[in-house]
Specification:
about 25% strand, about 375 residues
Amino acid sequence: MMDDIQLIQTIERYLEGKMQPEEKAFFEQQRKTVPEIDQMVVEHNMFTHQMEDFAANQRLKYKLHDVHNKLLVEGVITESENINTKAKLVHLWNRYRKVTAIAAVVGGAMALIISGMISYFAPTNKQAIQQLGQEVEKLKQGQRYQGNKINEVVSKMPKDAEVRGGGTGFLIDGKGYIVTNAHVLKGAFFANVYNDGKEYKTKIVFIDNDKDLAVLKIDDKDYTPIKSLPYGIAKHGIELGEEIFTLGYPRNEIVYNVGYLSAKTGYGGDTLSCQIQMSANPGNSGGPLLNKHGEVVGVISTKERQADGVTFAITSKYIFRLIDDIKKLDTSYQRIKLPAYSSIKSADRVNQIKQIEDCVFLIKAYN
């Protein structure tokens, strides 16, 4: 894939009409299939026109300055503050005020555009990406998640529990092992998970802040292990433009979302993650990213603050590395077995979702 400088040069040649017909047809097809390229063409075209207007404004400014100096030399106007001079200057203003007003508007617009571009592209103290875990206020006593609402029932959380955050997690082993993002558990020591109106206590098995991944283990007598998970976890990557989907909990009800792979690396070329074109909200963190075959290809983690629909997911190969690290540190977890085969490969999307959603959990992390 061409780098940024080559892409800008290509866009300039396209806008200036310097492309051969075959090259132009290929580039226009790229605009249709890659939204980021189309957006860059539109923005570059606008920027070029605004710069041309700004240059015209500057030329007008210099011309008016020259005219003013010429009139001073010819004695038509003076720098004195007498009434006649003021009248002549007002006449000169009336003559040029329309074009000056236009120039002022263009100049103001350019100032705003340039300021906005500087704010967008220049490094700032604000984070460029946003983690998608939920920051949750202290849970009210006696509340418990029940499918699509919170009912007034007895929770398994301690009465004085303070919820620190939340997000989504999904089973990687039917015995109750759940993967999520490390930042979902940030500042918490315990977590409960919820699915289909049921609440389960868990223990935190492992947190890897560098990979932003964590593993929970359901530790609750009410949990019934699942013999076989419907999805597999892929060791391979996905191709540009390939459709993907996710299930998660940006609200107290499970939510489905769909998109496509827009870049094989994450923000700033990060090789830990990939970029997907899909809307995501706080609470989606830790949700599974799946391909059309029902294979987990990633874990939703962050999104870009300044761009709509630009979301990032940690690629699934790091789930394997995470489990390898756990097994090396503690031999009691040797029995963790990641699913390799998707039994829903041939199912339609609706039936895929029906089987997957039982394995995806709302997470509430607390102290």
